[in-house]
Amino acid sequence: MRGKALLSNTLLSTALAAAICLCAAPGASADPLSGTSGFYVNPGSAPAAWVAAHPSDPRAAGIQSAIASRPIARWFGDDGGDIGSEVSSYVGAANSHGKVPVLVAYDIPDRDVCGGYSGGGASSVGAYESWISSFAAGIGSRPAVVVIEPDALSDYSCLTAAQQSSRTAMLLFATQMFQKKASDTWAYLDAGHTNWVAPATMAGELKAAGVANVRGFAVNVSNFYTTGSSETYAGSVNASLGGTSHFVVDTSRNGNGSDGEWCNPSGAKLGTAPQAGGGADLLLWVKTPGVSDGQCGTAPGTPAGTFDPALAVALINGS
């Protein structure tokens, strides 16, 4: 992808909720952190699956401790299955442990049109609307956090005017579905990163896509810009929105900041572990650390979306 690809272990939500502004934006849902005990750690994440399959590998213990044991978002696209059931099962597993799952909806038509490494998505507008409606319904009234369609707004420069209009309408529909069908979800439209789309331009795109229907927007998804620069960018976007929105920052790989490269760059490092508060609603690991951005950079032989233990170790060491 262009800028992406496909809590500490104990987070006491009652203590951390005080660090979040809970003033409701138009269309905002209830607080999913209230009454839960932190973010859900997916036992089936790519790093966890690799560790389970390679228990004797000398890298396994470090990857388990630094990455697999952390709350990481689970990405959902159209895998040919029943998306509503898949989402419901995952949210139900988190709910059974009193945890909040973090999910990514990633199936917009012409997905990753600029970067190309994670291309795909729904085959038509109708197929997407059915998919995202079922996604939201799969969550229902249970608590969750969702990032909606990474790259979708930032990729507008690679779309025709007609494609842009169609995409805006699909994203608007998506926000309406989360507003209507997922009453205890904080959903965030993706808004790119610090060095991609001008804040005022992004604010206009977010507004047209229905950001007022959901909690707010996400920045730095699958990218490397520091939390501080990401919060500054998000603050400028929010100012252009009238200061009524909220945002989250992906800190999965921003420990050393960005050198301008987005595809498996050298020198990247894990960032702050997922948590609530600060200048953002939440700091999240949206991108799975160790999963390749594409066949490029320091992992030219690893396809996008594939876990690479060498990439994971490099992120742990910051090398």
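[next item in queue]
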Amino acid sequence: MKKLVKRRTFLKNGAIALGTVAIAGLPGAGAAAARPQAKSRVFFTKDLSVDGLLRIYSRINEGLTGRIGIKLHSGEPHGPNILPLELIQGLQPRIPNSTIVECNVLYPSPRQTTAGHLETLKTNGFDFCPIDVMDAEGDALLPVPAAPAAARAASTPGAHLTEVAVGKSLPTYDSLFVYTHFKGHTMGGFGGSLKNIAIGCASGRVGKRQIHGDGWPRGPLFLERMVEAGNAVTAHFGAHIAYINVLKNISVDCDCDAHGVKPTCPDIGILGSTDILAIDKASIDLVYGLPEARRHDIVERIESRGGLHQLEYMKALRMGNDQYELIRV
């Protein structure tokens, strides 16, 4: 099995200037390096306010048309680190025909049932606009795009997904706006836009079990299934999907942990892009660009779970661009 690349290896082997980094040594990267590659645009502001969020959204929303789902993470009841409600309250009214969308969870939680999930959404204040628990009436199957030959050769041996069960109502939306709280994750190392749509759009009873597998094992195979599930969602929406990562309250724990530990990483800002790989990589670069003492805990969580393999495998599946221009707005 190919040894997972750690971020410190990236730092050692190449110049790490924000917005100009190419992931070295990734599956299929040789062919990409042989031809010129335009950089994706990632917009950034340190302004963690509604105004800052609106400025970022205005740069990425061109493809969001028709009926729009806002995929966010509602968190456990009274979750200690969820994003300030006023941010999405200040943005949602500016998104015509929009609905907050979620799916039920697999682990024991009030959000394991639709009734409990709706109550949690109300408890956490998300009932200010239409809400859709997408798997309330079952599943829909999305095909997972075939992996390029290079990705198949480099991936961990074992079963990978050919289709993923998502919430039944997901295909009724014309566009998807992925509003993500970037933070740590107990299995994925970190949760960015990829995790938000991969596990977040998977149905609670079927899709999430497909991704996690029996016994909830950690490691490359789980991460690859998660990426493949995300690839199904991005392929489904095509040009009608856009991403915002809010780098605030960056705990090592996900919002799915009702007792998530207090963040030790400082707040950074808001990122937006129409490229899922570029935005998650830019988020990682900003975290790793912090002084060591301030990034230590979140980096330890990411690397102890092999979380950077998310970026490797997204690159291998050609889900986006690992080279980006960071544009301050």
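[queue empty]
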